[in-house]
Amino acid sequence: MTNLRVPLVTLSIFFAFTTGTSVDFGKFSNCGILSLREDFKCLLKLVSFNKESPQIDWKNENKLQGIQKSCDFLQSCYESMECRKNDKDTVEIANRMKTYCSSLLHLQKDFSECYRKVERLDSTCRFGDSCNNIFGKNNCARKLILENCGENEWIGFKDNMMRLVKVKSPKCKADQFYYL
């Protein structure tokens, strides 16, 4: 059975912290205790989200709705960070979160029927979890999705997976998959 969870599992693990940037807390000294408390709530939700994301059960509608709620909560968290709205690290994390959630939710909503079709097959195609093999050995996902779901499904899946891998691995040249 095809395993679509593999690339999504590793893409979600602490994507917001993979930039390797350090945060200069001195520049936030005028934010105040109340703001720090709100920031901490956002951080705790992000950690919880990163723990839950690898275990997404694409067949469980309640879990998928939970992911949607987490995405909405985190997005509103980042938008409410008024004293950090011009901080490049905060803006980058918020943008990565927005990209991640919109791609993940596209896969949840628009790709779910194709996912079910592909899951029922007895395929040896295993999608990878890195920039080099995100679509499986010899890009087997392309053929699998094209044959079972059509070109539009493949293009949507490919585009979203490329966005997700860029969030996970900013140095990845995901554009190499553009013409698959």
Automatic annotation (TrEMBL):
Residues 36-173 form the T20D4.11-like domain. The keyword Glycoprotein does not apply. Keywords: Signal. InterPro entries: T20D4.11-like_dom, UPF0376. Residues 1-20 form the signal peptide. It holds the Pfam family DUF19. PANTHER family: DUF19 DOMAIN-CONTAINING PROTEIN-RELATED (PTHR21453:SF28), DUF19 DOMAIN-CONTAINING PROTEIN-RELATED-RELATED (PTHR21453). This is T20D4.11-like domain-containing protein.
